[in-house]
């Protein structure tokens, strides 16, 4: 068995979920600036996440779900997932974003699992609080190691794909590390760099 783990925002999905939600509320630029700094590794990921989610307070959960159900997937997303599965991979998504977005995408793409955070709501209205699997800078690496042990997969048989600083921790536990349209901080730790917005390029990597 082999394991492929993808980041979601700006990797499997063409954009950042929280920026899209913030734009709906009219302060997209403010949130996008925080996202940019977090993905570049300039500010603490937990602080960046909680600060941005606070700004979503008052948004209806139904509006969030409607927006998240129709997010644009990255070119080649369907093909890379099906192609990897044909080669014996279990394909999983890790996201520092939200399950509202990853779960619908996982169903569309046929992913084996998705791990993300949960936006807290009170009677259908977002409270500005968040919790879940992927809150911290170490979260993706921690979850990857747990899955490798559970599934009996070695780092040699693990492929990881991401674009920002919050993917660094999972890069530390895989021998094949793809920086996809990524920030310099992640490219420095990658074994393969793809700067074309087409996930099908991953299938061309030797040995995959």
What does it look like?
The structure is a single chain. The chain is of the alpha/beta class and 208 residues long. The protein has one domain (2-204): Rossmann fold. Helices cover 39% and strands 23% of the residues. It has nine helices and seven strands, in the order βαααααβαββαβαβαβ. The protein has helices at residues 17-25, 28-39, 45-54, 61-68, 77-86, 99-109, 139-151, 168-171, 184-187, and strands at residues 2-7, 89-98, 113-122, 125-132, 158-162, 176-180, 192-194. β6 (176-180), α9 and β7 form a beta-alpha-beta unit. α2 packs antiparallel against α3 (45-54) and α4 (61-68) runs parallel beside α6 (99-109). The model has no long low-confidence stretch (mean pLDDT 95).
Quick structural gist:
This protein is α/β, with parallel strands linked by helices and 208 residues long.
Task: Indicate the structural class.
Answer: alpha/beta
Q: What series of H and E elements makes up the topology?
A: EHHHHHEHEEHEHEHE
Into how many domains do the coordinates divide?
1
What is the CA-based Rg, rounded? 16 Å
Q: How much of the polypeptide forms β-strand, as a percent range?
A: 15-25%
In this structure, how is the largest beta sheet organized? 7 strands, mixed
CATH superfamily: HAD superfamily/HAD-like
Q: What is the C-level CATH assignment?
A: Alpha Beta
Biggest sheet strand line-up: 4-3-2-1-5-6-7
**Number of DSSP E strands:** 7
* Uncertain stretches of 5 or more adjacent residues: none
The assigned CATH architecture is: 3-Layer(aba) Sandwich
Q: Calculate the mean pLDDT score and round it.
A: 95
Helix coverage percent of residues? 25-40%
Euclidean distance between termini CA atoms: 13 Å
């Amino acid at each position: 068995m082999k394991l492929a783990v993808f980041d979601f925002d700006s990797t499997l999905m063409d954009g950042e979920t929280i920026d899209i939600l913030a734009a709906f509320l009219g302060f997209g630029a403010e949130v996008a600036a925080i996202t940019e700094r977090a993905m570049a590794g300039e500010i603490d990921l937990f602080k960046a996440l909680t600060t941005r989610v606070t700004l979503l307070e008052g948004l209806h959960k139904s509006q969030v779900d409607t927006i998240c159900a129709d997010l644009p997937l990255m070119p080649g997303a369907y093909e890379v997932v099906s192609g990897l599965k044909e080669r014996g991979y279990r394909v999983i998504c890790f996201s520092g974003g939200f399950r509202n977005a990853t779960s619908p995408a996982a169903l569309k793409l046929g992913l084996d699992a998705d791990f993300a955070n949960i936006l807290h709501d009170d009677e259908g209205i977002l409270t500005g609080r968040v919790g879940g699997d992927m809150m911290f800078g170490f979260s993706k690496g921690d979850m990857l190691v747990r899955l490798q042990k559970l599934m009996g997969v070695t780092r040699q048989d693990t492929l990881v794909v991401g674009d920002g600083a919050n993917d660094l921790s999972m890069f530390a536990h895989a021998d094949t590390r793809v920086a996809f349209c990524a920030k310099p901080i992640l490219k420095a730790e990658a074994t393969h760099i793809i700067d074309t917005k087409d996930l099908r390029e991953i299938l061309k990597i030797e040995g995959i």
